């Protein structure tokens, strides 16, 4: 591939929103590396998607230690992308990673202990060829580890300079309230909560998590905003070969129930009535929820990203 030079107009189309009561602005559309950036994926396609994203103002890339497959390989891909193309733009990028799910065997490679979080971040930095990440998350709530232990590890990570900010993902309401207070009292306020809000799943709204974030001045980023592709035209006429559902691991055909299909058709009709695609409509709906900072999309091609970016200007 030819040498990369970022599009000089890259900041003209994207809109940026303040992340809670922080100094950080995030693009309305961010890019996730959960799928399509692993060691099993074609590196040149990863590179095209990442270049396209950055050229269109997507400054925020979201990773986790175990994104791949195999585990760790999405972070290795990011390291390669930095070495090949993006290193000159490091200060224009906002890179996050996480630990909390199964990563390595034995008692120290999972959940929320200080031992796991500290070791995992060190490994992530090595894989990504980075000295620090912009944002480090506790990827999930651990009911067996004292919350103070997990949260103090996040505080100490920021103090060590290995992350500039911290966040939490998928924590339940009361633990989230505790986390926000604990972190604020130690002058390391929680930057952002990562949870799933989309037209088919509104749990963080119903459970009061989005409201809490708004009250506490914490940003909110919505993962799987397209319900892994269900809220696009991907499955309106069956299950296309090569789609996430055809691979059947995280999005299974049995999730496409008649009720879900009916909801998808309903939202598709509403989108069409507004002259929008279902994907644009679904993303714009999330971005209208007060307190939402960004939608964290996935994409298996630049074409998908191109379509999804249209919501950013609605
Ligand atoms: N915190 C957590 O626990 C957690 C959990 C899940 C995800 N995440 C984060 O959220 C990010 C996004 O999650 P996600 O990949 O599930 O997001 P998503 O945006 O809901 O789904 C992305 C997938 O939908 C399909 N798609 C996207 N745009 C399309 C379009 N315009 N037309 C047709 N199909 C389209 C593609 O799948 P095909 O392969 O079918 O093309 C694409 O890979 C992840 O990468 C990760 O960073 C976090």
Give the SSE map:
Blueprint: E1 16-18, E2 25-27, E3 29-32, H1 43-55, E4 60-62, H2 73-86, E5 94-99, H3 114-128, E6 133-138, H4 147-160, E7 163-169, H5 173-185, E8 190-195, H6 203-206, H7 209-216, E9 219-223, H8 244-247, H9 258-273, H10 278-287, E10 294-297, H11 302-309
Parallel strand pairs: 3-4, 3-10, 4-5, 5-6, 6-7, 7-8, 8-9, 9-10
Antiparallel strand pairs: 1-2
Helix pairs in contact: 1-2, 2-3, 4-5, 9-10
The structure holds NADP nicotinamide-adenine-dinucleotide phosphate.
Ligands present? NADP nicotinamide-adenine-dinucleotide phosphate
Named CATH architecture: Alpha-Beta Barrel
Number of spatially distinct domains: 1
* Side-by-side strand order of the widest sheet: 3-4-5-6-7-8-9-10
Could you give the order of the helices and strands?
A: EEEHEHEHEHEHEHHEHHHEH
Mean pLDDT: 97
Can you say what the CATH homologous superfamily is? NADP-dependent oxidoreductase domain
> What is the global morphology?
globular
The Cα radius of gyration reads 19 Å
Largest sheet: 8 strands, parallel, barrel
> What's the end-to-end separation, in Å?
33 Å
- Portion of residues in beta strands equals 5-15%
- How many beta-strand elements? 10
Reading off the top of the CATH hierarchy, the class is best stated as: Alpha Beta
Could you please say which CATH topology applies here?
TIM Barrel
Category from helices, strands and their pairing: alpha/beta
Uncertain segments are none
